[in-house]
Amino acid sequence: MPRLCCVLAVVVSCVFVASAEVLKFKPSSVDGKDTENAAAGVHWALLVAGSNGWYNYRHQADICHAYQIMRKHGIPEERIVTMMYDDIANNEENPTPGIVINHPNGSDVYKGVVIDYKGEDVTPKNFLAALAGNSELLRNVGSGKVINSGPNDHIFVNFADHGAPGILAFPSDELQVSDFIKTIHEMYQDKKYGQMVFYVEACESGSMFDGVLEKNINVYATTAANPDESSYACYLDEKRGTYLGDVYSVNWMEDSDKEDLNMETLHKQFQIVKEETNTSHVMEYGDMKIGQEACGEFQGKQEAAPVTVPKVPYDAVPSEQVPLSILYHKLAAEQNDEKASVIGHKITALLELQEKVAKTFKDIVAMSSRNIHQSDRILRSRYRLTSYDCYEPAVELFDERCFDLSQNDYALRRLFLLVNLCEERVPTETILASIDKVCK
Fold it and tell me: Active-site residue 203, yes or no?
């Protein structure tokens, strides 16, 4: 009997120890969701650079910098999804291989960045799948990581690239506003988030939210530009021969680097960025109550040592003029006549391409219009986009037949003319036929 009591005592003791260990070391996640913080909600971030090419260096530099902010303020790697082409850090034109900077003489922002989707995986389809948590669609694509969020979670989305009315560009395709807003609505209905915030760097980026983002679905957005204007590149680096950042993006990130994110609200940051961005009209949309939340609720709540960088000239230029500006600066600095001639030929070719783009749009407008009066009105007007059923197929056909929009920011900046045709109620079939004939 004494021996049995000893055995029972050992068993009971083991049960209590095991129970304590289970409580102490319980899994932090089930199916990718954080179970310890499910009630309070956790932070997620989706960071996207939608361009490629050395002259678009700035977009990937912006997103790498954003990644460093999220990590520094405590958002874990497993809850950050990053998309970028990744052709900048080790590009043959990079004089500092493996290093990417976002400020003149700035620190490396590329080191430690975990990129989930690279190269051809950076697409609108994959972006929406990652945002909505559709892991099935991303099976065997990149890392497969998605925003696997729940009803109390906070999601921060930062996008940097080119844009146009109702469009965000990706390396080989474009995201249409109707697909974008549809995904947000579905996420809201499926309780995929508690609150969601978008920071969007792109020309005419306000058009992705203006008049289409409802104020009662717990989403707040700020954009680099209103629906009608360019965003601006900045920090031309002579050594690298490209622009290091974008005005809106560096303004919000340099503010986040130096502020206490648990004290500064999103709206306060918006006001600071709006005042400092004198090149375009920084806008805010959606649920303004979220604007009263602390930046830390979306960019990470962990305290970090403030970092302040010296103020330097922006040397800002409209996004669509970046390739020309880079070439003009190279030409001015080139001492070798033969090399200068090569640069001059590149400038001439680019100017001729811009003229060709402008003429193509003018011909499409003329062919689609009822008369010269309507044609003149369309060419000099700027209508707000509402006729998506007309505009989106027109953009798709133009991209297919005329110019690759994802690689031609100048063409993107002329798409407002297709908006005007649609808003003048020119039949969609007429516009498509004109595009087909002009660009055949």
Answer: yes
